[in-house]
Amino acid sequence: MKRFLDTIQNIWKIEDLRVRILNTLGFLLIYRLGSFVVLPGIDPSILGQSAGNAQGIAALLNIFAGGAFSRASIFALGIMPYISASIVMQLLGIAVPAIQKMQREGESGRKRINQYTRFLTIAITLVQAPSYLYSQVPSEAIVSDSSLWMATAMLLLVTGTIFVMWIGEKITDKGIGNGISMIIMIGIIAQLPSAFAFEWSARMGAGGLVMLLVEMVFLLLITIATVALVQGTRRIPVNFAKKVVGNKQYGGVRQFIPLKVNAAGVMPIIFAQALMFLPMTLVGFTSSDAATGFASAFADITGFWYNFVFFILIIAFTYFYTAITVNPNQMADDLKKNGGFIPGIKPGKKTADFLDNILSRITLPGSVFLGLVAILPAFAMMAGVSTGFAYFFGGTSLLIMVGVILDTLQQIESHLLMRHYDGLMKSGKIKGRSSSAFGMAG
Asked: Model-level pTM?
């Protein structure tokens, strides 16, 4: 306990870290307050009666938005349109040479890509806003259903998403951690107390204290497995050539290249989840029975087809995102330039092929395990866990929380070690990810 208090005191002593943490808390407070501001022209009391009826994808979106989705808040669409736009831009970066060129231009290219991402976010929000108003807001809750109200509500939803995006960028620049990831995580955590309270009351009413304890044990085990997935690495030994200058010897030491079992982080789930949201978005623009039936099949998160397609998409996107974020050829070139080599492997192309083969072998079990964790909430629901609490038994919610918390703690530890304070852990360092939680800097 004393060590913990000393660490908190050390964190508070570092002015830059203290300011960043306070900035982060301030921006997150603004976001949480805004999520309770209901769109004008909507009766909040009627919304409150239907808020608990959200099911399937709508319930998952509500968790990501911190409850703003069911409250018809000005932040109802949250940060998801920005994430969808970022995904589209990353996909275009593979297929469009002009965007590939911008990616290689460094800081100037990144700024231009961010600007295009913002414009695309506005376009996506303009598509999602009317679908949300028509399909998710009860007609009896709308006080004045007119064209002027629809235009005003759409404008506020677009403005709200842009403002949330701005908050995320400010957290990244002036706070601690990745802003976009932080916003999603705080929305998820905000739903945890109410979900647990509902599960507690349901179990206590049925005399199921033992079942509640079993659920908590399973939740703990799943969390431990998720942490192991996020932190798991395959260490490749690397030797560096000796160099003698005068009476001193340089190099000749053995180091390691840590290849992560899950190098893609939570991005494959975010990619797959964004695609699974499309049917619900598109069905708001049509009354066709066939389209409605197709969308309903993919809106039931306990259904076979939803989980099967979701699982396959996660595996595919894990390979895809690992391929675009980890470059074995560049790693091999960097090793060669610095006089490093993998024992028994020739430098250059042989080293690149060796790293690529290792990466392919460890990505398969990593992607399968990631897919299994993602569909665990469906099994929890089928086992009798309440819908709200089941989302924390794996899935996107748990992976995002674990990933963002580890990433943020790693940044705090870096600040401490940089100023010669003890880290957060008694032994060793926190093995956070080398990239942001969602692969985007905001």
From this structure: 0.75
Return the HEC string of 89-123: HHHHHHHCHHHHHHHCCCHHHHHHHHHHHHHHHHH
The domain in which residue 184 lies consists of 2-418
Indicate the residue type of 257: I
What is the structure's pLDDT at 27? 93
Identify residue 69 by its one-letter amino acid code. F
Residue 179 belongs to some domain of the structure: yes
Q: Hey, how many other C-beta atoms are within 10 angstroms of the C-beta on 185?
A: 25
What is the rounded distance in angstroms from the CA atom of residue 334 to the CA atom of residue 350? 14
Output the pLDDT for position 102.
Answer: 84
Cα dihedral angle (324, 329, 330, 333), rounded to 10 degrees? 180
Contacts of residue 123, defined as CB under 8 A and 6 or more positions apart, other chains included, come to 85
Element (H, E) at 233: strand 233-240
310, 294, 300, 355: which is closest to 329 by C-alpha? Answer: 355
HEC string of 315-358 equals HHHHHHHHHHHCCHHHHHHHHHHCCEECCCCCCCHHHHHHHHHH
Q: Which of 257, 216, 228 is nearest to 240 (CA)?
A: 257
Mean pLDDT by 10 residues, the chain (442 residues): 71 83 92 89 71 58 76 86 84 82 81 90 90 79 79 92 92 86 85 82 70 85 84 84 64 75 79 72 57 63 82 89 83 83 85 89 88 86 81 78 82 78 57 44 40
- The one-letter amino acid code at 18 reads R
DSSP annotation of 39 reads P
DSSP state of 242: -
Residue 442 within any structural domain of the chain: no
Domain count, the chain: 1
Let me know: does 409 contact 417? Beta carbons within 8 Å: no
